[in-house]
Protein backbone atom coordinates (compact mmCIF):
# COMPACT_ATOMS: atom_id res chain seq x y z
CA UNK A 1 0.00 0.00 0.00
CA UNK A 2 2.79 2.43 0.85
CA UNK A 3 4.56 1.77 -2.43
CA UNK A 4 1.37 2.23 -4.44
CA UNK A 5 0.47 5.51 -2.73
CA UNK A 6 4.01 6.88 -3.19
CA UNK A 7 3.97 5.98 -6.88
CA UNK A 8 0.52 7.55 -7.31
CA UNK A 9 1.57 10.81 -5.65
CA UNK A 10 4.76 10.90 -7.71
CA UNK A 11 2.79 10.35 -10.92
CA UNK A 12 0.31 13.10 -10.03
CA UNK A 13 3.11 15.56 -9.29
CA UNK A 14 4.78 14.71 -12.57
CA UNK A 15 1.53 15.22 -14.48
CA UNK A 16 1.02 18.60 -12.78
CA UNK A 17 4.53 19.66 -13.83
CA UNK A 18 3.94 18.91 -17.49
CA UNK A 19 5.69 15.54 -17.43
CA UNK A 20 8.81 16.96 -15.77
CA UNK A 21 10.25 15.94 -12.43
CA UNK A 22 9.27 17.88 -9.31
CA UNK A 23 11.70 20.71 -8.51
CA UNK A 24 13.33 20.88 -5.08
CA UNK A 25 15.33 23.60 -3.37
CA UNK A 26 13.82 26.57 -5.18
CA UNK A 27 15.26 29.95 -4.34
CA UNK A 28 13.77 33.38 -5.05
CA UNK A 29 15.23 33.50 -8.58
CA UNK A 30 13.75 30.11 -9.51
CA UNK A 31 10.32 31.10 -8.18
CA UNK A 32 10.48 34.37 -10.14
CA UNK A 33 11.35 32.51 -13.35
CA UNK A 34 8.52 30.01 -12.76
CA UNK A 35 6.13 32.93 -12.32
CA UNK A 36 7.42 34.54 -15.53
CA UNK A 37 7.00 31.27 -17.43
CA UNK A 38 3.48 30.93 -16.07
CA UNK A 39 2.61 34.43 -17.27
CA UNK A 40 4.14 33.78 -20.71
CA UNK A 41 2.72 30.33 -21.39
CA UNK A 42 -0.07 29.83 -18.84
CA UNK A 43 1.82 26.92 -17.27
CA UNK A 44 4.44 27.21 -14.51
CA UNK A 45 6.89 24.78 -16.10
CA UNK A 46 6.08 25.79 -19.66
CA UNK A 47 8.73 27.35 -21.85
CA UNK A 48 8.45 29.09 -25.18
CA UNK A 49 10.86 29.80 -28.01
CA UNK A 50 8.99 32.85 -29.30
CA UNK A 51 11.06 36.01 -29.34
CA UNK A 52 8.01 38.24 -28.85
CA UNK A 53 5.86 38.21 -25.74
CA UNK A 54 2.13 37.53 -26.24
CA UNK A 55 -0.37 40.36 -26.48
CA UNK A 56 -1.15 41.86 -23.07
CA UNK A 57 2.03 40.62 -21.39
CA UNK A 58 3.27 44.18 -20.79
CA UNK A 59 0.17 44.84 -18.69
CA UNK A 60 0.65 41.67 -16.68
CA UNK A 61 3.15 43.08 -14.18
CA UNK A 62 4.43 40.66 -11.50
CA UNK A 63 6.05 43.33 -9.32
CA UNK A 64 4.70 43.36 -5.82
CA UNK A 65 4.96 46.26 -3.42
CA UNK A 66 6.89 45.35 -0.33
CA UNK A 67 6.87 47.34 2.86
CA UNK A 68 10.09 49.04 3.83
CA UNK A 69 11.61 48.38 7.20
CA UNK A 70 13.58 51.08 8.95
Spell out the key features of this protein.
single chain, 70 residues, mainly alpha, 41% helix, 0% strand
Q: Give the total of beta strands.
A: 0
The end-to-end distance, rounded to whole angstroms, is 54 Å
Mean pLDDT: 79
What is the gyration radius calculated from CA atoms? 17 Å
What portion of the residues fall into strands of 2 or more residues?
Answer: under 5%
- Name the overall outline: flat
Q: How does the major sheet shape up?
A: none
Structural class of the helices, strands and pairings?
mainly alpha
Q: Low-confidence runs (pLDDT<50, min 5 residues)?
A: none
The share of residues in helices is 40-55%
Reading the helices and strands in chain order gives HH
Q: How many helix segments?
A: 2
Describe the structure concisely for a colleague:
The protein is an all-alpha fold and 70 residues long. The chain has two helices and no strands. It has a domain of 43 residues.
Word description of this protein:
This protein has 70 residues and is mainly α. The protein has a domain at 2-44. 41% of the residues lie in helices and 0% in strands. It has 2 helices and no strands. It starts with a helix and ends in a 29-residue tail after the last helix. The mean pLDDT is 79. Keywords: Electron transport, Membrane, Mitochondrion, Mitochondrion inner membrane, Respiratory chain, Transmembrane, Transmembrane helix, Transport. One of its GO terms (cellular component) is mitochondrial inner membrane.
Fold topology:
Layout lengths: L1 H15 L11 H14 L29
Membrane topology: Single-pass membrane protein
Pfam families: MWFE (PF15879)
Keywords: Electron transport, Membrane, Mitochondrion, Mitochondrion inner membrane, Respiratory chain, Transmembrane, Transmembrane helix, Transport
Amino acid sequence: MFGFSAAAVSSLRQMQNGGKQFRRGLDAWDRQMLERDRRLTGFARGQTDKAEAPEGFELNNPWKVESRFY
